[in-house]
Amino acid sequence: RAKADGRGTYRFFETGMDARAQARRLLEMDLRAALQRDEFQAYYQPIRDVASDRVVAFEALLRWNHPHRGLISPINFIPLAEETGLIIQLGELVLRQACSDAATWPNDIGVAVNLSPVQFKNPNLIASVTEALEKSGLAARRLELEITESVLLQNSEATLTTLHELRAMGVRISLDDFGTGYSSLSYLRSFPFDKIKIDRSFVSELATREDSVAIIRAVTGLGRSLGIVTTAEGVESDAQLELLRREGCTQAQGYLFSQPRPASDVAMMLERPRLRASA
Ligand code: C2E
Ligand code: MG
Ligand code: MG
Ligand code: MG
């Protein structure tokens, strides 16, 4: 189609592709160097039990502390890390860091780590989880691994075997971003998840859309019947929290309590119920 638009457009199009490819190559080189320079850091966001209002866990969220560009969000580098396979190294780094940080927290506080679908294609996944637990001394039951539906979409036999092995080690498995994919209910039948994380999009529309309330009600009800913990993501207001409490949602996570913060702020996040100001 670019060709049919005339020669000038075609060349412009090619140049555009080139610039993108080059930007991608630069970012890839930067990512590799950043791994060498140790510029990645896990930040932590508290997850609270709605009924007791206590912090029960923290989710590890990766940040790239770039010397010139400042803190870079994972949405800006995880996709390329996945394409290039660098996510394997990054994933192991987060796992090790999260487990050794969590080992210093009170015994009843868990840690949740996000796993990329690419990590499930790596035959070393079980070994790296085992190693992270052993080296840190963290009890397996305190570790939660968050996966999205897309993990179950690929090579599902091998993936299910891996999930069952992790489960057998005592690690808990959460289904992240629930409701954003295609056939969420069948996934709940294919693997006995410990937790469903209701995607932020449903929570943010709670005050303005009746159907979001109905969806939250349905998912928390489903969780109750199946014996699965439900966690609402992206809770930003007291009104949202009140509604979640009324609907019997088990846990809540969001800026209402705190943004993700460095490990050095965990003690403060445990002491102070709300840290709304930005990190
Ligand atoms: P996620 O696992 O669904 O994480 C929740 C995201 O929502 C985080 O974004 C968090 O900072 C943000 N969030 C939490 N509360 C609120 C709120 O009240 N309002 C709003 N607007 N946002 C809130 P973040 O840290 O930018 O991470 C984005 C995504 O990147 C994560 O989504 C996860 O899919 C991925 N990610 C982060 N760390 C890792 C990692 O270590 N490994 C892998 N594979 N993926 C990661
Ligand atoms: Mg997550
Ligand atoms: Mg999520
Ligand atoms: Mg998400």
TrEMBL record:
<protein>
    <submittedName>
        <fullName>EAL domain-containing protein</fullName>
    </submittedName>
</protein>
<feature type="domain" description="EAL">
    <location>
        <begin position="24"/>
        <end position="274"/>
    </location>
</feature>
